[in-house]
UniProtKB/TrEMBL annotation:
Matching Gene3D superfamilies: 3.60.21.10
Highest taxon of the lineage: Bacteria
Sequence similarity: Belongs to the CapA family.
Name of this chain's protein: Poly-gamma-glutamate synthesis protein (Capsule biosynthesis protein)
Matching SUPFAM superfamilies: Metallo-dependent phosphatases (SSF56300)
SMART domains: PGA_cap
Organism, scientific name: Nitrosospira multiformis
CDD domains: MPP_CapA
Domain Capsule synthesis protein CapA, residue spans: 65-346
Length: 431
């Protein structure tokens, strides 16, 4: 093939993949600022601004520390560079082998050493996790972990070889939320093997199960001297989850929300009450909304507020968007509307460049024990390159800061960039 023909062929391939991903993954749809808001915390006031000197809880109690991030998609291309690549066959409209995504990434940014170690994909994120020592590490694992060949009739299907599960334990992940639009990509057999593999790896799960009772059950973490953290996982059809994937009394599936209504909020409230003990911190991890776009639908915001007001949720961990979205602190409780993709094999795929989907954030949440109110949110900018997480440049960190400030303006939040390129959230004091 002539060089010009080859270039045209690569462009056509990338454009086709972009259209396929868009169809398959996005089917649906002077104030007062504070870094820390805690009862009994000494506040300094200057020029009408109210800011907190540092993250600590009432009475000197140590905050509960959580690590949250966006979608972790270790299937398909990433699976192929790990020590035990699975069957690469794909049934996408154009790409027929997962190795094609490796080729696209290498064409864009150079060779990826193969096989990589299990810890390779986490890159610079590992040092941040080791330094900050979060009490609970939570990710949305958006792939089936299976050898199943029961491919579902979808535009895009993700799977990772179960022998590659050490790539998740390499980051000492405590909890995988699974109520998303890829965990059942390879059928019920694939889901069963995913659940089995994660349990064998001593990773707690939420949001999917062999029946609706399992899918609705939270992951529970008892923290010495701090109480418990309960992690609930919910999925929405607006993220592209087929309604037929909903778990039932005698059928495996995901914990799928029927809608964002007040009735749904009350049902969640009742389920939380069944398991919650005094002092528990409740995290609601929700896979919702379109892949692209910064707008936050009114029904999502109302639902998030309802979960806090009515159901007693303390932290809302939203994901599905392929880029970071705005952040809100509502009555002292954190709402992440869209964390962006954290790890994926999209390198080299053109389209939607304006969103800078390769830029992502590590969200380190500090919350008051007992009350769940936000003490601080520190965000570490990362860039996915060579199927690996890398610290961003100063320019890219500033770009993320500007996005958070632009989108946060309407939500009462902003971000400040520290000398080490860490972003600190500031928010309007409420109630």
């Amino acid at each position: 093939m002539k060089p010009t023909e080859n270039a045209r062929h690569q462009l056509e391939r990338r454009e086709f993949i972009v259209s396929t991903l868009s169809a398959g993954l996005a089917m649906a749809v002077g104030p007062l600022y504070a870094q820390a808001v805690t009862n009994g915390l000494q506040i300094s006031v200057k020029n009408g601004d109210q800011t907190a000197p540092g993250p600590r809880s009432p009475g000197g109690n140590t905050p509960i520390r959580l690590f949250l991030c966006g979608d972790v998609m270790t299937g398909r291309g990433i699976d192929q560079v790990l020590p035990h690549p699975g069957n690469p066959i794909l049934f996408e409209g154009y790409m027929k082998s997962a190795t094609g995504y490796v080729e696209l990434a290498e064409e864009a940014n150079g060779p990826i050493p193969q096989p990589v170690s299990f810890s390779y994909i986490w890159g610079d994120a590992l040092a941040e996790l080791a330094r900050r020592k979060p009490d609970v590490r939570i990710i949305n694992l958006e792939t089936a972990v299976t050898r199943s060949d029961d491919v579902q009739d979808k535009a895009v299907n993700y799977r990772m070889n179960p022998d590659n599960i050490p790539c998740i334990t390499a980051a000492q992940i405590d909890c995988c939320v699974l109520a998303n639009n890829h965990v059942l990509d390879w059928g019920y057999e694939g889901l069963a093997e995913t659940l089995k593999t994660l349990k064998r790896a001593d990773i707690k799960i939420a949001g999917a199960g062999l029946n609706v009772q399992e899918a609705q059950k939270p992951a529970e973490f008892a923290l010495s001297g701090k109480g418990r953290v309960l992690v609930f996982s919910f999925g929405s059809e607006t993220s592209g989850i087929p309604w037929g994937w909903a778990a039932r009394a005698g059928r495996p599936g995901v914990n799928l929300l029927p809608n964002f209504s007040a009735k749904t909020v009350r049902e969640i409230r009742d389920r939380i009450k069944q398991v919650r003990l005094p002092g528990d911190i409740v995290v609601a991890s929700i896979h919702w909304g379109n892949n692209w776009g910064y707008a936050i639908p009114v029904e999502q915001q109302d639902f998030a507020h309802g979960l806090i007001d009515e159901a007693g949720v303390d932290v809302i961990h939203g994901h599905s968007s392929h880029h970071v979205k705005g952040i809100e602190v509502y009555k002292g409780k954190l709402i992440l509307y869209g964390c962006g993709d954290f790890l994926n094999d999209y390198e080299g795929i053109s389209g939607h460049e304006a969103y800078r989907g390769e830029l992502t954030l590590m969200y380190f949440v500090s919350a008051e024990p007992q009350t769940g109110k936000l003490v601080s949110l520190s965000m570490v900018p990362m860039q996915v390159k060579h199927f690996r997480l890398n610290r961003t440049s100063d320019v890219d960190a500033s770009w993320l800061k500007n996005v958070l400030n632009r989108e946060g303006k309407k939500l009462g939040t902003s971000a400040e960039l520290a000398a080490d390129n860490t972003l600190m959230l500031r928010w309007t004091l409420q109630g």
